[in-house]
Structure formats: structure tokens, C-alpha cells
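Task 17 of the worksheet. Students: predict the tertiary structure of the chain below and write it out as C-alpha cells. Keep your answer in the requested format; marks are given for formatting as well as content.
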Amino acid sequence: MNGAKKFYILIAEDDPDDRFLFKTAFEKSGHHNVVKFVENGVELIEHLKEVTEQKTKNEFPAFILLDLNMPKKDGREVLKEIKEHKVFKKIPVVVFSTTKNENEISKCYELGANSYVVKPLIFDELVKIIEGLCSYWFNVTTIAY
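Model answer:
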């Protein structure tokens, strides 16, 4: 990604244990990017709106890791809202869920998910997934805001 800009990863996850695992996996992966957490879909949308209002597009998340099953506004609603927004739709959204249901996965892609990853059961697998996501979204892609 553009080296001059500051990017971070925004993770929408309501489970404190999963947030801890994500934080630890990012640290272990060697990616020292800033990771910001929100606990539900309402917080995620509020955060993106705040960034937009402050006109700090250079500080949009490099990508969003989105849990599907969250309180207040679930991941499906948030995904739809992000991908229908004229500015937010450019932010890559990676759905990170325990749900392996093919209909659910297809629905997420129909709503605009850039990727869908099933949460692994083993921590080392989570680290590998984080390494791959960071490598791809930070080193391979270029996103124009």
C-alpha cells in the first residue's frame, strides 16, 4: 500500500477472548500495524463516520475484519451499509466468522465482502491467516481513497 499513508486494521469483534487472540496473533505475526477494535456494528459505523467527518481519509483502515454475530448491528447489516456507502465501500472487508454455512458465505459475498475466512480452532493457524491477510492487503494491493 501507499507507504506515505498511515493505515491500521479495524476489527469488529464482540468477544473479549477473540479480541485478545487477534491482538496476540498480530503481535506474533510480526506485523506491528496499529489494530483498533470495536465491539459491535454500531461502533464500527460510528468510527468510520468520525474518520470521514475529520477528513482523515489517509487514516481509513487498510482493511476491516468483521465478525458476523455481534450485538446492536450484526455483521451482515454492517457489511451492507459499508458497501452501499460512497466512501466506505472502498475499504476491504474480510468477514471472519465461525459460520461455515455455504448460504451464509454466499450472502456475504453478495453483500460485497472482499473475503470470507472461517475462524480457525488453532492459534498458530490464526497467526498464519493474519500473516497472509497483512501481506496481501499491505504489500500486494493498492487501494485508492
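Marker's comment: Helices lie at 16-29, 41-53, 75-84, 102-110, 123-140. The mean pLDDT is 84.
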